[in-house]
Amino acid sequence: DPRNKVASKSFEKKVLQKVAIKKSPYDASALWKMTDSFVYKNKQISIGALKSTSTLFSFPKKKVTVRNWLEYAQANVVEGKAVNYPAQMQQFVITSSVLYYREHLEDYNADFRAQLQEFADGNLLFEVMEKRVWNKAAMDTAGLRNFYEKHKSQYQWGPSVNAIIFNASDKKSAEDAQRSLQQNPAGWRLLMESSGGRIMGDSGRFDMAQITDKDTDKLNSGYMSSIVENETDKSASFYYIVNVYTKPSPRNYDESRGMVMNDYQMELEEKWIADLKKKYPVKVN
Questions:
Q1: Residue ranges of the alpha helices (H) in the chain?
Q2: Residue 160 per-residue DSSP state
């Protein structure tokens, strides 16, 4: 579309004004001879003071050399068609300017500069948090254990159950699993192993709220939930309750580890921030 070309030309003109291009003096006829040798004979020669390392023009943070021009001319040669080197050089200047503008956009666009700085600050914050808090807590097994011992009263089971959560590839497999469990609940592992991957089970202790929103007074050992079918992939799931615990009881370290790590990370972060405030005091007017 011709309108697109008009927009491109307008953009290129603005770029040339912004990038502050500075042209160096050089012998154009010598440059064209060097270009012929490189483009058509693949030979790199020097003529007088003009060498492949000579600067043709420059930007505030970059120099464009004869070598850059030779590679551009070679890449854009059309076989059997005469080349207008001065016209091609004009296009080379424009192409180089647009490329430089894109590579240094933060120098010319305040919004982009602010966003780039925001990303840099965010990455820096993530890295230092990972080093000083997250990884430190994960690797400090002794610190985690000590934190648990000091705060073990905080880690309690509320109303909870020992349960097996089953996931089946389809509703029929789930129904077959339920019939088998009703006859032999203790054989759930054998049922899973002999299903060819159609049925998977995961046993553990769960807070009642994790597995059901039913009236917990109605739950008891041997309770089997109804089957819930996933509309997306037609898989199905249900759970089977082995034991019910209605009274609060302490969680051991392994049962509490996820919560302990989260709380320990918070403590490390609070101590670290307190140290930073001492090191870098802030006075508020």
A1: 2-18, 28-41, 66-75, 85-103, 110-129, 135-139, 141-151, 171-183, 188-193, 208-211, 253-279
A2: E
**Nearest Cα to Cα of residue 220 among 158, 156, 157, 159:** 159
Percent of the chain at pLDDT > 70 equals 98
Tens digit of pLDDT for each residue in 16-57?
Answer: 999 999 999 999 999 999 999 999 898 989 999 999 999 999
Give SS3 for 37. helix
Separation of alpha carbons 60 and 22, rounded Å: 9
**Alpha carbon 65 to chain centroid, angstroms:** 38
φ, ψ at 244 (rounded to 5°): -120, 135
Angle at 47 between CA 43 and CA 48, to 5 degrees: 155
Burial class (CB in 10 A: 0-12, 13-18, 19+), 199: buried
Q: 94-110: string of b/e by CB count within 10 Å (b at 16+)?
A: bebbbebbeebeeeeee
Nearest-angstrom CA–CA distance, 257 and 255: 6
Enter the pTM of the model.
0.56
Q: What are phi and psi of 234, to 5 degrees?
A: 65, 15
Are the C-beta atoms of residues 60 and 20 closer than 8 Å to each other? yes
Report how far apart, in Å, the C-alpha atoms of 70 and of each of 50, 119, 270 are: 13, 37, 60
Backbone angles phi, psi at 164, to 5 degrees: -115, 120
What long-range pairs does 33-42 form, CB within 8 A, spacing at least 24? 34/66, 34/70, 35/69, 35/70, 35/73, 35/85, 38/70, 38/73, 38/74, 39/70, 39/73, 39/74, 39/77, 39/83
**Coil, helix or strand for 221?**
coil
Burial grade of 19 (CB within 10 A; 0-12, 13-18, 19 or more): buried
